[in-house]
Amino acid sequence: MQPNLNSDEVRQRKKVTRHFILGYIFLLAMALSWSVDDSIVYILFGIGIFFIFLGFYSRPRRNTSQQSYRTSGSTRSASAKFENPFENIFRKHQATTQASGTSKNPSTPEANRRVATLVVFAVFAIFILFFIGSIFSSEGEWDESTLYFQNAQGQYWDGNYDSALINYRKAWRLNDEYADAFVGYGNVLAAQGQADSAVIMFDKALRIRPDYKEAGYSKASALNNQQKYNEAIAVLKPFLEENPDYYDAMLVMGDSYYLQKQYDEAIVWYANAYENGEVRSHALSYIMAYIYDTKGDYGRAIDLYKEALSYDSSVVDIYKRLGELLPNEEGNYYRTQASRSQQP
Fold it and tell me: Global pTM?
């Protein structure tokens, strides 16, 4: 036979049902968002557990008054001629505690509030633990992406391009804001002659970090390889304005003009890197010597041709040109070296 419930009990049961339904909904949402983001999963889990605990706590309870301490309750013999002496003692103690308002009955409102506080505290403690766990999990992913990136860098410099591509890709898939990994991936593609694909990767890095000068340098180099010289110049100009001592970029800027035979513009950038940045190499000395030679500045051209030979003494054309530019015995030396180098 179903018991009769008053309106308060009905409302209480509806409240419990509502809490359980909400808890189920949040846990279901957690399950559906499992592959989206860890922090969302932990938040939904915490809220769902909170409502489930709240549902258990809000269940209606029966009020049971504390029974008197009797020797055998209703089974006490009717023929007993005396009362249990402990019964009077218990009644006096109960009356005293009720009068003083310090009853230890665990079902009092004060006790209920303490239980509710403990439940809320426990739920939020669980939530915080999961949240902290998600943070450390995210940091672990970032550390893992860094490890992949470092491995890729070593493989790139060793010329192991296939492995480098794999590890760069793993790095930016774990961290889609990893601009360095996109640049590294693009550098490998450029080294493999895939300039178009390389430029796409450099653009991704520049969208993440617009001031990333190394990405701009690599992009301009790739554009030069595609013979898109003016585009390369446009890429480098803002970086050189912000970084006037970026000498590596100056060399690429000089290349962009030199490859278009705009020697007056090219020598400005080359000379800046050579004189102010103290950049020295066989290629730079040779190109600058050639530009000064075409401009009729033979003194500078001769010095730079000689410097180019100090880096690589096997270039026959430099010997021949110095033999043409230098008179007498000094010229004879270079002419002799040129003829010897041409002998089989």
Answer: 0.59
pLDDT, one tens digit per residue, over 248-293 is: 999 999 999 999 999 999 999 999 999 999 999 999 999 999 999 9
245 in Cβ contact with 277 (< 8 Å):
yes
Rounded to an integer, what distance in angstroms lies between the CA atom of residue 103 and that of residue 94? Answer: 8
Share of the chain above pLDDT 90, in %: 55
DSSP character for 267?
H
Whole-number Å distance between alpha carbons of 305 and 322: 7
In a domain, 326, yes or no: yes
- 77 falls within a domain: no
The answer as to whether 248 is a domain residue is: no
CA distance 65 to 236: 86
Cβ atoms within 10 Å of 209's Cβ, excluding its own: 15
C-alpha–C-alpha distance, residues 156 and 164, integer Å: 5
**Under 8 Å between Cβ of 25 and 50:** no
Q: Is residue 38 part of a domain?
A: no
- The CATH number given to whatever domain includes residue 288 is 1.25.40
Across 121-160, b (16+ Cβ under 10 Å) vs e yields eebeebbeebeeebeeeeeeeeeebbebbebbbebbeeee
Quote the domain boundaries for residue 342.
280-344
What span, in angstroms and rounded, lies between the C-alpha atoms of 147 and 154? 11
CB-CB neighbours of 56 under 10 Å: 13
Q: Number of folded domains in the chain?
A: 1
